[in-house]
Amino acid sequence: MNWLRHFFRTPEAVAGALILALLAAMALAAPLLFPGDPQAIAGPALLPPFQDWSLPLGTDRLGRDVLAELFHGARTSLAVGLAAAAAALLIGAVVGTLAGFAGGLIDEALMRITDAFQTVPSFLLALAFVSIVGPSLGVVVAAITLGAWTGPARVARAEVLSIRERDYVAGARVIGMHPLEIAFREVLPNALPPVLALSSVIVAAAILTEAALSFLGLGDPNRVTWGGMISEGRTVLRTAPFLSIVPGVALVLTVLGVYLAGEGVVESTAVRRSLS
Amino acid sequence: MTRALRLLRRRLVGSVFVLLIVVIGSFLLLEAAPGDAVDAYIVSTGGDAGMIELLRHRWGLDQSELTRLANYLWALLHFDLGQSVTFSRPIRDIILERLPTTLVLMGSATALSFGLGSALGVYAGARPGSFRDRFLSIGSLALYAVPGFWLGLVLIVVFAVDLRWLPIGGIETIASGKTGFSRATDIAIHLVLPVSALGFIYLALYLRMMRAGMAEAWRQDFVLAARARGLTRRRIVLAHVARNALLPLVTMLGLQSAQMLGGSVVIESVFAVPGLGRLAQEAVAGRDTPLLLGIILVSAILVVIINLLVDLAYAVLDPRVGAGEASA
Predict the structure, then answer these.
(1) Which residue of A17, A24, A100, B285 is most buried, as measured by CB atoms within 10 A?
(2) Residue B65 and residue B31 in contact, taking contact as beta carbons nearer than 8 Å
(3) What band does B328 get if pLDDT is binned at 50, 70 and 90?
C-alpha cells in the first residue's frame, strides 16, 4: 500500500491513472451500454453532436452512432496495445536473456538480427506484414510486435550480462542446473524490472501504430478502431471536422494517460528504492 | 582522422551483415505473400496458362528457393530491385524518383524537432523544477502522445480549410510553370504543414532528453567549478551544462531516423506528398509486394547510412569515443 501512496504522490500520475481507469471502464462497458453492432446505422447521416440526446455525439457519414463507435474503439485500442506490448516484452526478454546468457556466436547472431529489425522502420515493416498476410486483429498485433520487441531485447541483454556473473548464478551452476533452466528460472526473473519499465512506452507506441495502420485502411475491417474513424471522418473533413477530431482526442488522451501512469510507476519505484 | 576511419570500417562490416539479414528477411516475406509476380502481372494484363508458364520460366520463378535467393542477392548487388507490377517500371527508378522528396521532408522535420526541441530543453532545464520546466515537460509529453496523421488533419482544418493560409496538400502547385527560386518557395510553402506535423511529434523526445541531460550535468563537479570561478548563470547554462547534455542527442538523431521514415509514410499520405512513404502506401493498395520490399530495403540502407554519419559526427565531436572500445 506504501507503493500506491508513492504512486499517487504526483498530480501527473493521478491524472494518468484516472484516464486509464476511465478508458478501461469504457472498454468493459461498451457491450453493455451499446449492445449490438456499433457499425450498424443508428440514425440520420452526419448528425452534429449535442443535438439529439439519444445520439449525444451525433452520427458519421453513414449514420452510425459516434459515441458507440468511440466506446467500441476503446476496446480495440486497449486490446491491441496491451497484447502487442505483452508479446513484445515476452519475446524481447527471452531473446535478450538467451543472447546475454549464452554469449559468443549465439549472442552475436541474435544481436545482429535485433540490429536488422531496428534498421527497418517498424511502421513500414508492420505495413508490409499486414498487407501480405491480410488484416485481422491477430495479424495487426503480430505486425506491431515485430517492430517492438527489439528495445526490450537490448535492455534484457544488458541486464543479463551483469546478472550472470553473480554468485547465485555460479551457485546454480555448481549444483548442476541445466544452463537453460538457470537462464530462465534464475536470471530472467531478476532481469525483468528494467524491461518492464519500458512497458508504458511500448503500449503507447503500439496504440499509435495500430491507429496509424487502421487510418491507412489496414485495420481489422470487422472492428471499430479510432484510426479507422479518423480515416472515415477525413472524407468529410471540411463539413464535419468533429468526426476526425473526437476519436483523435480520445487517442491523445489514451496515450497521454499511458505515459503519465508509466512515469508515475517509474518515479514511485525510484522513491521506494531510495528509501530502502 | 585514422580513428574515425577505423570506426567507419568497423561499422561498415557490421552494416553489411545487418543489411544481409534485412534482404533475407524481405525475401522470406516475399515468399510468404500469396501469389507471385507472375500472378500479379497476369491479373493486370490477362493471359493463359501457357503464358504463365513462360513468364515463370523467364523470370526464374520455377527454380528452387535457394537459387532464387541467390538470384535476388545477385540482382541487388547490381542495384536491380526488380520490376514494379503496378507501375510497369524498374523499382529502382521509381524509388530514386521519390526519395529526394522524402529526404527533404525528413531533413526539415528533423531540423525542426532537434533545433526547437533542444532549445526548449535548454530553456526548461536551465531552472529545473520551475513552472516553465513542468509546463514544457507535460506539454511536450502531450504532443508526443498525438498521432502524426491526426495532427496533420488538425493542421489542415485550421490552416488550410479555415484560415486558408497554406495549401491543403501536394508538393507544389500543379502546372504552375514556376522555375528556380519561385518554384523552391512554392515547394517550401507546401512543405510547412507536413514538416510541422512530422517534426512537432518528435520535438518532445529531444526536449526531454536535453532536460534530463542538463539535470544530470548540473550535479557535475565542473558546474561547481564554473560557479566558483564566478561565471554568470547564463554562461554556465550555455557553455557548460547544455553543451554536455547535447552529445547524447546526436546519437538520438541516428536512432530516430527509422522512426521518422516510418512516420513519413502516414504524413505523406495525409498531405499527398509524392515521396517514398506515399509510394509504400500505393504499393500496399496495388498489392505490389516487390515494390514494398524494395522500399523497405532502401529505407534500411538509408537508416544505416544516417547512423554511420551520426557515428562519425559523434567521433569528431567527442574525442573520447572510438579510441578502441567496441560498442554493441
Answers:
(1) A100
(2) yes
(3) very low
CA atoms of B42 and B238, how far apart (whole Å): 64
Q: Give a three-class secondary structure readout of chain A.
A: CHHHHHHCCCHHHHHHHHHHHHHHHHHHHHHHHCCCCCCCECCCCCCCCCCECCECCCECCCCEEHHHHHHHHHHHHHHHHHHHHHHHHHHHHHHHHHHHHHCHHHHHHHHHHHHHHHHCCHHHHHHHHHHHHCCCHHHHHHHHHHHHCHHHHHHHHHHHHHHCCCHHHHHHHHCCCCHHHHHHHHHHHHHHHHHHCCHHHHHHHHHHHHHHHHHCCCCCCCCCCHHHHHHHHHCCCCCCCHHHHHHHHHHHHHHHHHHHHHHHHHHHHHHHHHHC
B265–A124 C-beta distance less than 8 A: yes
Domains and their CATH numbers in chain A: 76-270 (1.10.3720.10)
Q: Render pLDDT for B155-175 as a digit per residue (tens, 0 to 9).
A: 988 888 878 888 877 777 777
Q: Write the ipTM.
A: 0.85
Tell me the residue type at B27: F
| pLDDT tens-digit readout, B221-273 | 888 888 888 888 888 887 777 777 788 888 888 888 888 888 899 999 999 88
Q: How many CB atoms lie within 10 A of CB B202?
A: 23
- The residue among B135, B149, B211, B279 with the most chain A CBs within 10 A of its CB, best to mutate, is B149
Chain A to chain B Cβ contacts (< 8 Å): 142
Buried b (16+ CB within 10 A) or exposed e, A81-98: bebbbbbbbebbbbbbbb
**Rounded Cα distance, B184 and B188, in Å:** 6
How many other CB atoms sit within 10 Å of the CB of residue A165? 8
Chain B positions touching A129 (Cβ under 8 A) are: 29
Verify whether the Cβ–Cβ distance A119 to B258 is below 8 Å.
yes
Nearest CA to B255 out of A151, A189, A94 is that of A151
**Closest Cβ opposite residue B261 in set A124, A132, A216:** A124
Rounded CA-CA distance A188/B3 in Å is: 38
| Summary mean pLDDT of chain A | 86
User: How many CB atoms within 10 Å of residue B62?
Assistant: 13
| Cβ contacts of B41 within 8 Å, gap of 6 or more | B47, B55, B85
Helical pair A104-119 and B289-317, crossing angle rounded to 10 deg:
110
